[in-house]
């Protein structure tokens, strides 16, 4: 398939935690990666951005990852942390969220086994309070319950972007709060700071999207439109997803591209031609019954190289725009 550009632990709001400073020489260009879930948080949704971040330095891009210090519902896997030659800044997840802090304090009672006496009464009371807090959080947290982290990150991240002069911003969906944070940064900073919005899944058009509130559905659709409009490049993981999103902006279809999920040759995945699919390839893991047919399979490094080429093109365009402005100012009469 063608590629158009191919060639912190809990702390205070004012003190996000930095870790794993780079052990590689700094490249000429830097990318800010916004990913609410990132190692040591585990899960399948973490892998795409984590592998991109690991491999980008090979192509001249040094990532700084802005993430949450803890993510509910995801396993903890410290193993990938040892592989990350980059800087990770963990912003407290509960920054600006009194409701979230209250729910976390009730967790011990909510999860307690029903017993007799005071324990049973406390457990029922805690569950009732938690249910109401959850309903209130759902009604007030747009686009999702990660928004307190994003709002708490905005001022801190704005100062970091201004001081470190990143060349590109990258954010990944989901959660949608990643894109909300990148969108607000884009609005605050110069228009010459390019933004790449990655969609691992569709949002409102996803078949699993279930939002009973018409008001929230309208708000989600509006934010999605703002993201698609403001992002300089929108990346999807399949051609079908690219077409669905591009149809929302027919005048700017060329900024929607596909970079699929790849495989890691070191982990045992292989590439073999499929006789029944002509030039299509099959990616399979030895000893596994799971295989993916009907699409081209690319190695992780190849896909990261293509992402880096997108970054390079955007950074070059931004630099040219700045040079044009400087030349215009130099020729203006005093």
Task: Looking at this protein, list some descriptive labels.
alpha/beta, 16% strand, 3-stranded antiparallel β-sheet, Rossmann fold, 11 strands, 334 residues, 8-stranded mixed β-sheet, 9 helices, 2 domains, globular
Can you describe what's shown?
This protein is of the alpha/beta class and 334 residues long. The chain contains 9 helices and 11 strands. The strands form 2 sheets. Strands 1-4-3-2-5-6-7-8 form an 8-stranded mixed β-sheet, with helices on both faces. Strands 9-10-11 form a 3-stranded antiparallel β-sheet, with no helix packed on it. A hairpin with a 7-residue loop joins strand 9 (270-273) and strand 10. It is globular and about 65 Å long. It starts with 16 loop residues before the first strand and ends with a helix.
